[in-house]
Each structure stands twice: as C-alpha cells, then as structure tokens.
Fold ABC transporter ATP-binding protein.
Amino acid sequence: MSTAEEEWRGVAAEDTETLTQRATLRLQRRSRALLGSLLRPHSRMVALALALVVAENAASLAGPLIIAIAIDSGIPAAVGGDPSTLAWCVGGYLVASLLSSGLRYLFLRLVGRIGQDVLLDLRQRIFRHAQRLSLSFHENYTSGKVISRLTSDVDSLDDLLDNGVDGLLSAALSVTGIAVLLVVLDPPLGVFVLAGFIPLVLAARWFFRNSNAAYRGTRGAIAKIIVQFVETMNGMRAVQAFRREQRNESIMSGLNGSFRDANRRALDVVAVFTMTVRMVGNISLAAVLLIGAWRVVGGGLELGVLTAFLLYLRRFYDPLDEMAMFANAYSSATAALEKISGLLEEQPDVREPESPVDLPASDRGRAVTFSRVAFRYSADGPVVLPEFDLAIPAGQTVALVGPTGAGKSTLAKLVARFYDPSSGSVRLDGVDLRELSDSALRAAVVMVTQENFLFSGSVADNIALGRPGASRSEIESAAGAVGAHEFISRLPEGYGTDVRKRGGRLSAGQRQMVAFARAFLADPSVLVLDEATSSLDIPTERAVQGALESVLADRTALIIAHRLSTVLIADRVLVIDDGRVVEDGSPAELIAESGRFAALHSRWRDSLV
Ligand SMILES: Nc1ncnc2c1ncn2[C@@H]1O[C@H](COP(=O)(O)OP(=O)(O)OP(=O)(O)O)[C@@H](O)[C@H]1O
C-alpha cells in the first residue's frame, strides 16, 4: 500500500472535510467491500427479492395498458352489445393489481428480513472489533465515537435498507419499464418525454455530488454530539462539582448548531433536486396533454392510448421523487459506511501471535523480566522509558513508588501487555509476552486497576469475572479469603445484589475488596496492582490490607503502592523516576539509607500521627 493510501487507513480520514479524488475512491472501495461482505451470506435471498420486485413491477405496469385496451376496444365493443372484452379487461386489471400487492408484500417482508440480519451482523462486527482494538486506539478514539458508529451510523444504514433500497429498485424498474412502454405506445410522444431526461440526468449528477459532501458533514457532526454527550454523562460528578454545566451547554449548543446546519445543507440539496424532478415532470405532462389532445382531435391518436400515456407519465415521475429519497438515504448511508468501514479496518497494535508458545509449569508465581525496554505511547510522543532493565524472581512482591508521571503505571501496563514495548522485551519465565496466546497471558497475569470497575450485574457475577464458570461456593470462598464475605452477606440480596441498583452500590473500599476477590478467584501467577489512591478509614484500610496479603500469597506481584502499609509488606521496593529505577532494595534496607524512599517513608509516617 502506498504512503498516500496509508494516510487514509482506518479512521484517519474521519475528521477530514475535503478528500482528494484518490482518497474518495479508496474510501468508496472500502465501503463497497464492507457492504458486499455483509450481503454475500444472503445472496440467494437478495436474488429472490430482485425476482419478486421485477414480477411486482411487471404486474403493476400491466394496469394502464389494460385500461387502454378497455377504452379503445372493450367499451366500444360493449356499446355494440359484446361486453366480453371489457369483462376480460376488468378481470385482468383486478388480477394484475392483486398480484402486484401480494408480490409487494412478499418483497417487503424479504427485504426487511435481509436488512435486519445485515444490521445485526454489522452491529456485532463493530462491537466485537471495537473490543479487540488495543487500548492505545481507544485512548485516542473515545467511546463516544464508537457509540456513534454503533448507533447513528448503523441507523442510517437501516434507513437505507428499509426505505431506500425498496424505493430505488421499484423506481429504477418502473422508470425503465415505462420508458419502453411509452416509446412502444406512441414513438413520437415517447421520444419527446425521454428528451426531458437530459435535464434530469444533469440534476441527478449535481445532486449526488453535493449531497455526498453534505452528508459527510452530518455524520461528523452527530458523532461530535454523541462524544460530547457521553463525556458529560461519564464525568457527571466532575461536571457538577466544577459547575461546568453552562460551559458544556454552550459547547453542546454549538455542536447541535453545526449538526442542524449540516442537515439543512443536505435537505436544501434534496429540495432543489425534488423541485427539478417535479417541474420537469409537470411540464412534460402538460406538453403531452396538449400535443396528445391535439392529435386525438385530428384523429392521429386514440383516446385510450393517450389516457394510458398520461397514466404512465404520472407513474414515470413519481418514482423519480422516490429516487431523491433513496439518494438522500444513500448519501447518508455512504457516509456512515465510510466511517464504519474505517473503524473495522483498524488493526489492534497488540496482536496475538499466530503460533503461541506455552509457558512452563509453575506453582509459585513466575519470573518477570524487562530486558532493555524502551517505550513511548506513540511514534511521535515523548520517550517514557528510555531503557529499562529489571528482573523480578518468581513469588516476589515488588512495590513501585515514585513521583507522579515517573512511569509506574506504564511499567504495570507493559507487564499486563496492554501495550508492547517500542524496543526490548518483557518476559514471563523467559517467554516474551508477544509469544503468548491471549488466553495464556490473561490466565497468567491479572491487573487490578485503580478504578475497580464493576459491571452491571450481581456482586457474584462481578467476582466470577475472575474465572467465568466458577461455582457459587468458589465465589464465596474467594470472597471469604479476602475478607469480603461478611459485608457482601449484609447487602440486601447478599451475593445476588445488583451493584448498579440503589442499595447495591458499594463504597470505594468495598469495591476494592470485590476486585481482590475477583483477582483471588482468577488465581494468576502474576498480579499487577494499581493501588487506589483514595484514602480509606482505618478499619477499612485494615480490611483491605488483610485482603491484599491473602491475594499476594504465592504469586509474583507488582504493586503501584500509594499506602505505607502496602509498601512495608513488599519484599522489594523500587523507586522510579523519569522512567528509571533510582533505588532498589528491601523496605528495611531503603529506610536505613538516606535516599528518596527514606524521605518518603518519614513523610508517610508523619502523616499517620
Ligand atoms: N495513554 C497515554 N498516552 C500518552 N502518554 C501517556 C499515557 N499514559 C501516560 N502517559 C505519559 O507517560 C508518562 C508516565 O506516566 P505513568 O502513568 O506511567 O506515570 P505514573 O508514574 O504511573 O504516574 P501516577 O503516579 O501519577 O499515576 C507521563 O509523562 C504521562 O504523561
């Protein structure tokens, strides 16, 4: 792939207003490929739907032709005493109408089913893919954008499949069918009507060019609204605490305004196109009426043929209106498809190896080694770890301390392989983390983060996250081991309490205990713990400390320690500064020296008195 194409890979083009011709073609190819892959499993059904719509149109086009025969032959014969032709015409008309309605029903049902299956598949693909993408992607892309891909973009596709495709197929078929019939019925009038097509083709070209640009704008604007909305709702506490409501409102009203303007532009384009179609249609109709009537009076045209001609002509322009609606839905869906296909094109930075290596057997933790690890979060970002070497023997508990921004969390995230080192390697019992399968890595290393995230569901479900499929007694014994059993039993519905419902909400300390129970149940050989910074009251602190000691037994642990009590139970303390180890030793050794840890230790102790 050339560098120019590389620039438009994935979500790179999302915020670009104007694209080069090459980029546009590339994005269109990508969208078409996605649509093709979505429709392929339903190809038979799509073929059946096409057959149904062709048959339906043929049945419905027979109507005016039968009326022409009725007027020109049926009625004169009936006046002459032979009503059979007229009776055949009426019967034929009824059959054609019934057939057309029945086929339409079948077509709509089928298209509805295909459409919903396609959307289901697409939603699942987006969700699955978004979950697979690396943390580094999510940090930049934000959850709001993923939500807008999954909701408003999929909705525009829904709109296209529900209304647009039906409109387009019917319109295209009836316009073609009618054009042929018009020329057959009366060639001079037919050719005259078809000449009206020239301005229509020009108008359609203008429409597509402009509406595509307008709809790219609406997709971008709605995504920004959702991002802002999600961020505000997620940060509601901070919003209210810092009185950010007014500022958020003004940001939101600006975004809403751009969304409205982008939509207005899109609708203006539709309005101009629809008006042009109607105008050409009505002028043609008036002209055909004038010329046709003049020829009927002169005896050059039969009245029935003129009637059929006028009936067809009405049907000829109505679907063109529908085409405008389709084009509308199409432009919106193309813009959505462009964004969705971009998200789906993104590849995780942290990838599972094709032929993973097994870890050796171990029953007491695993050795963790950093060998000449250099790390930066992005290719153009600052170096966070210049060259880091560290060997942690199996079973050792290491506390990481150091100033904010020193790189402690970065080290922890590298051990859990949320990121890969820019150079060098992180190894587990000598095996590079990049050579392990995801499941082996997740079984071996568990990271407990500061946020202690609880998913909606019961307390038991949240603990069971550590080992899906764990029995209730295993869950309870894990909770018991970390000392959480007692408070969980006191919750309104015990282990079955919903953590998101009133009464089930847990305090910071309780959330931490649940997270420990989860880690205990997962039973990893390496535990990475980013200790919560929030201070707990003394009894809770003790309980949490006790829980921590049970979780740490018999495993290797790397703890970003914020509490003195945690540091003191560690076998080894590493003081990190600016991505380097500046002190390394047991807590007692470091306290005995007069370095940074000794100073930190005395400040901690002073704060406890
Ligand atoms: N996701 C990220 N993207 C880019 N830079 C980051 C990211 N996370 C951290 N950094 C940068 O990397 C450096 C180290 O951050 P890190 O979070 O590892 O520090 P820390 O020692 O854990 O700090 P704290 O004690 O405040 O949590 C900082 O300069 C920070 O700005």
Notes: The chain has 21 helices and ten strands. The chain has two domains: 25-344, 368-608. The CA atoms of residues 206 and 273 lie 9 Å apart. The mean pLDDT is 85.
